[in-house]
């Protein structure tokens, strides 16, 4: 059961960690301490033994690791809404945190468009993106033409949590749901360059096996969604990489 947590006034935060992964927990807690972030630990959900409230979201289409990761994120979304938080930082336990991460998040939350649902902190995009605002420290808030992978570091707003908790049968891992934002009408932004990285190494390899998936024809849906959110002029400028000057959305 989740308990009401005490957070700094500026950045409420959670991190996901399996009970058995003590080494990951210790490393991440040192990272958080050095970054000046106080975070509540959420015990990662076992995808084989879901709490009753999560059962309607899942069937056998995903493996236990994918279900557990998705369900852990939904558990935090539920906590955001139940505790009345306007937003929260959400980290997975392989996150590595840049020293200015807290300042970058504070600036991004203040300067992002009011309708933001998710601000990504992880993995730069290799595709063109639209710069929405400069937030200092050489970083910018951006909207992506194509959302990158990974959910190692996110900021999720109350509206984003509500959308992610939309009653449905979850067919895809959480990173895919965020990469395909048209499915839940998610307003996804990011910080470039990212203030969070994903650790690597034999002791930090993913516990979720890689599985092949049928490729969906998403190009048209992505284009329609981007044009609707960005406007045709910004979309075309972004497609042709015509500068990356900040624009107001």
Task: Give the tags.
19% strand; 7 helices; globular; alpha/beta; eight-stranded mixed sheet; two-stranded antiparallel sheet; 249 residues; disordered C terminus; disordered N terminus; Spore Coat Polysaccharide Biosynthesis Protein SpsA, Chain A
Describe the structure.
This protein is an alpha/beta fold and 249 residues long. The chain has one domain (13-204, 213-239): Spore Coat Polysaccharide Biosynthesis Protein SpsA, Chain A. The protein is 31% helix and 19% strand. It has 7 helices and 10 strands. The protein has helices at 22-35, 64-82, 101-111, 158-164, 174-179, 219-230, 232-239; strands at 13-17, 40-43, 87-92, 95-97, 118-120, 129-136, 139-144, 153-157, 188-192, 196-198. The longest helix has 19 residues, at 64-82.
């Amino acid at each position: 059961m989740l308990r009401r947590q005490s957070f700094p006034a500026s950045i409420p935060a959670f991190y996901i960690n399996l009970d058995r992964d003590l080494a990951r927990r210790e490393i991440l807690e040192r990272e958080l301490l050095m970054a000046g972030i106080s975070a509540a630990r959420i015990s990662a959900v076992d995808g084989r033994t879901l709490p009753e409230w999560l059962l309607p979201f899942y069937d056998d289409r995903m493996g236990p690791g994918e279900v557990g990761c998705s369900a852990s994120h939904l558990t935090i979304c539920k906590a955001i809404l139940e505790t009345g938080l306007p937003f929260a930082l959400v980290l997975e336990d392989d996150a590595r945190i840049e020293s200015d991460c807290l300042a970058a998040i504070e600036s991004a939350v203040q300067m992002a468009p009011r309708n933001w649902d998710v601000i990504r902190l992880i993995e730069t995009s290799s595709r063109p993106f639209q710069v929405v605002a400069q937030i200092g420290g050489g970083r910018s808030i951006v909207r992506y033409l194509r959302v990158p992978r990974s959910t190692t570091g996110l900021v999720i707003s109350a509206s984003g949590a509500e959308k992610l908790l939309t009653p449905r049968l979850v067919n895809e891992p959480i990173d895919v749901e965020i990469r395909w934002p048209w499915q839940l009408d998610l307003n996804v932004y990011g910080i470039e360059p990212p203030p969070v990285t994903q650790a690597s190494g034999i002791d930090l390899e993913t516990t979720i096996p890689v599985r092949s998936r049928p490729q969906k024809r998403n190009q048209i849906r992505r284009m329609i969604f981007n044009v609707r959110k960005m406007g045709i002029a910004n979309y075309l400028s972004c497609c042709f990489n015509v500068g990356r000057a900040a624009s107001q959305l």
